[in-house]
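User: Fold this one for me? It's Molybdenum cofactor biosynthesis protein F.
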Amino acid sequence: MTANKPDEWKTYDQFAYGIGTNRLPETNALSGKSFKLSFDDGRKLSLVFADGKAKWADNDGSGEDRAEMIEVAPDTYFIDIDFESRAKDAETIILNVKTGRTLSIYAHVREKEEAGAEPQVAQIFRAGTVDGMEATGFTPEETRDLIGLRAHFTYSPNHTYEHTYLSSKRYAWQCLVGVQRGHGDVDLATTWKFDKDLYIFTFREFKIPVASTFFYNFEDRRSTGKFLGITGDGRIENNPAGAFIRKASVTFYEPGQEPI
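Assistant: Here's what I get for Molybdenum cofactor biosynthesis protein F.
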């Protein structure tokens, strides 16, 4: 934990308990299917899905690990892989099997000394395409679309959080219902647009070692995601989460006064 964490601040495992209650169910629609992905930075990733697992191989190794698969929009899947051989890492793949578009969010728990003043859990973003498919439709890209939005996320009867998207780099949160009620902070955030009304929102906390990846489907008003972080007793956990979304308000800025 960082030295500036308040004494009453909840640990990752304390606030995350039950936060997957309102998550969409897993699917086996990809079982038996395989994909080869090429990312813009040159990374190659092959995936073969079966029985809740993924056989994978990339530029640095291969393995077979637990993989969650959720259909978060038509033909679009949220795939989250826990690497047994890479205990400090987890990867989320957003994959549209019709357009051939994909986005990887690779999360890594660093040592505190390596992170320095930055959040301890880092994230790497890679856009890509499916080999053998002609990529069509919208090309995923980092976006400013959410700046000014204030929204409420209900993950369970015991978890409601308010998000305010401040800029292209930061967002503010506060807990309205739950063990963190009254707590809030401003953390680093990155948002990508995947398609119309479909976004990937990620954040990296300063006060505790945790980062998150969420897929927002604003048409269905559903959020599907995960947290990767260090528990109060020092274990690394990759936990599911999901919420109902309610847009609360939007702030509009005068030209020339927009946030970064």
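One thing worth pointing out: The chain has a mean pLDDT of 95.
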